[in-house]
Amino acid sequence: MTNVKTSSLGYPRIGENREWKHALEAFWAHKITEAEFESIMKELRLHHLNKQKKNGLDLIPVGDFTYYDHVLDTATMLGFIPERFDHSGEKVSLSTYFSMARGNQSVQASEMTKWFNTNYHYIVPEINGTTAKLTVNRPLQAYLEAKDELGINGKPVILGPFTFLKLSKGYQDEQFAEILKSLVPVYIKILKELQDAGATWVQLDEPSLVTTITKEEMDLISHVYKQFSQELSSLSIMLQTYFDSVSFYEDVINLPVKGIGLDFVHGAQQTYEKLERVGFPTDKVLGVGIVDGRNIWRSDLHAIYEQLQRISRIVPAERQILQPSSSLLHVPVSLAQESALDPLLKKTLAFADEKLGELELLKQALTDPSEKTRAKFHESHSAIKALAQSPWRTKAKGAFRGPSKRSRPFAERQALQRAKWSLPLLPTTTIGSFPQTNEIRRARNLWRKGELEETAYKNLINEKIKKWIEIQEEIGLDVFVHGEFERNDMVEFFGEKLAGFAFTTFGWVQSYGSRCVKPPIIFGDVAFIEPMTVEETAYAQSLTSKPVKGMLTGPVTILTWSFVRNDLPLKDVAFQIAQALIQEIEALEAAGIEMIQVDEPALREGLPLKQEDKAEYLAWAVESFQLATSTVKDTTQIHTHMCYSDFHEIIDEIRALDADVISIETSRSHGELITAFETNVYDKEIGLGVYDIHSPRIPSEEEMTKVIERAISVLPYELFWVNPDCGLKTRAEEETIAALTNMVKAAKNVRETLPSKNTSLQ
Fold first, then answer.
1. What is the number of domains present in the chain?
2. 333 lies in the same domain as 427
3. Per-residue confidence at 645, pLDDT binned at 50, 70, 90?
4. Is the dihedral of CA 350, 352, 355, 356 positive or negative?
5. Which of 504, 561, 574 minimizes the C-alpha distance to 349?
6. Whole-model pTM?
7. What would the pLDDT profile of 493-539 be if each residue is shown by its tens digit?
8. Are 339 and 505 in contact (CB under 8 A)?
9. Where are the alpha helices (DSSP H) in 432-563?
10. 685 has which bridge partners?
11. Does residue 146 belong to any structural domain of this protein?
12. Residue 44's domain is classified under what CATH number?
């Protein structure tokens, strides 16, 4: 009998019915007290631990639960509290913690950006000369709670020092080594206190080891972990990586730790090759990330069993810990409530709880296989085969319709568009959505359940469109949007109207803070069925003489923010989506909508983590956008929008999109992006978000005036647009009107200072 163990790297925080989200928002709205909030969160933590215990996990992660974001937790634990936040004493209050995450009326929030190449966002730590100090040992608190309340000897999960610093800002590159070394004593204190409390394993997450790092950085990591090993006598460290194969494999596996966790799903080919060529130390445990922690497809247990046999030829099963490839925070909690899914499709899915069940089945197969286990293995294989052979997956790969380049270069199109639209300098607009009130959400829910007639629902949507067209007129915006009141989510909305998509009822995942999304499932061939956005956009345009933008989500974002079929290359699925969008764009043009925004906020987040893999991805990502947008008339102005991009890193590809206007979500790091334009030339029209829509804070007219002035000090003012950071769906109506009013006033202020008072773009 083989002695093999199972573990998990982290569990979804949000709860089966988003109880976590509801508690957060109730606390922020002052509907519950701090004590009530803490009590609800504790109940959720213990519930999650109990579920994992019942699933038979040998090592249960603790400390992965958070009130907002695990990177923010690490920053506050290490004492990295920016001076602008009201903080005194050792303990970090909830007020300070949430101000760092969300900002408030007097202070701007910390920057937020993507967690590696996922759709999860983390709060960026700010170093800024601060010396690390331990404010509270969060992992110790989590460990003791699990032990005292549930009798669980948990595996504390801690973001490792190298990755923490790589994800931080506020220091120069040449300071990196010095700052990293300064973190070591604090981490040692955290680890020693865990050791003294009885912890046997601790998981130090170092996903930055799968990115392109230097040999000097690898040597620094070796130095850090050598210090850890010298100070710890009985605590076993599992150095955990995920999202790809590690760089410097041989250096990593020889770090002085008890275990190394590797991803055998993403970057698996390279990981297997390195394992078989180099081997694995005989004194270490291998964390085998064999069940996909990022997608929702059921594992083919037969195939995984064969892979484990392959691994066991190098590392005996008794020195393996079977686990997901990453934390399960990227997938929904449970499939149990999904009664509306097609039975054939549902049989091929696995959410967090089901993935833990798969680990238990694999453990049983390796330790004491039974007929029941064999039947489950056969069931998984048969379900996957049935989907592969279904009519949903029959589209042959063939030639794509239409050109992949605009018929004229940008300079010629720009002249034609300026003559057509006659916009002022520094034209003002928004990114797309306006506030979605409880009234709209309630009406949509009733309409979906058949309890509200379609006519009544459409009348309500038109009422909101008309109201916000009038508000935009009053505010004085130059280019309008219809507000997207009919849309639940910018990807789900389109998926519901295209072939090849399926939708869950409770398949929520955390995007940032309390913001949860329900990604569609791309399970079959994607195809256009009928116009999706024309009716509402055309109605809005009929109410005003100002241009109204058509609003679409781009192919890469629909792809990236969905759970995507795993039997085709991502490129092929992106091109299928682009083909569908061509027909929607042509329908908008035919209806007289000739400003069309095709949003690609996820373009950069899809970037592979290794430098050598990025060019191929960017080539097909750009091509899919070009394919979708290149059939339009020269006078049709194509806009796009991106979120939190390291613009300088992909400036050539963004230019290659050949959009006439791009807006970029940058307000939390505005100065840094503007600096990028001092060394990079961008020759198309651009809007850098002038205020942060993720915060309830209303920026002043003066503040936004300074932001615009700073931007046009390095960008030609003739190319500059003025807009918020992102869509305004999550903001209150009063906040939105006040902020946009200040934004328009700021644009007019600066417009009046421009040379020769020439305020026209004609």
1. 2
2. no
3. low
4. negative
5. 504
6. 0.90
7. 999 999 999 999 999 999 999 999 999 999 999 999 999 999 999 99
8. yes
9. 438-448, 454-475, 492-495, 534-542, 555-560
10. 661
11. yes
12. 3.20.20.210
Decide: 352 and 331 in contact? Cβ < 8 Å: yes
Q: How many DSSP H helices and E strands does the chain contain? A: 26, 21
SS3 labels along 510-543? EEECCEEECCCEEEEEEEECCCCCHHHHHHHHHC
* Token pair in block for residue 570: 């991502």
Is residue 398 one of the residues assigned to a domain?
Answer: no
- Which tokens in the block code for residue 306? 């064969």
Q: What is the DSSP string of 180-233?
A: HHHHHHHHHHHHHHHHHHT--EEEEE-GGGGS---HHHHHHHHHHHHHHHHH-S
How far apart CA 104 and CA 696 sit, in angstroms, is: 6
**425 and 386, same structural domain?**
no
| Structural domain ending residue among the three candidates 340, 360, 391 | 391
Three-state DSSP state, 643: strand
Which tokens go with 466?
A: 């008309």
User: Domain end: 391, 421, 452, which one?
Assistant: 391
Give yes or no: residues 425 and 385 share one domain.
no
Share of the chain above pLDDT 90, in %: 82
Residue 313 DSSP code:
T
Assigned token pair, 31: 């509907």
Give the separation between CA 746 and CA 155, rounded to whole angstroms: 52
Residue 674 pLDDT > 60, yes or no? Answer: yes
Domain that holds residue 470: 413-756
Is 694 catalytic? The answer is yes
**Residues 383, 441: one domain?**
no
Amino acid at 295: N
Active-site position among 87, 121, 670, 694: 694
Which pLDDT score is estimated for 757?
47
CA-CA distance, 720 to 301, in Å (whole number)? 54
Contact between residue 591 and residue 636 where contact means Cβ atoms under 8 Å apart: no
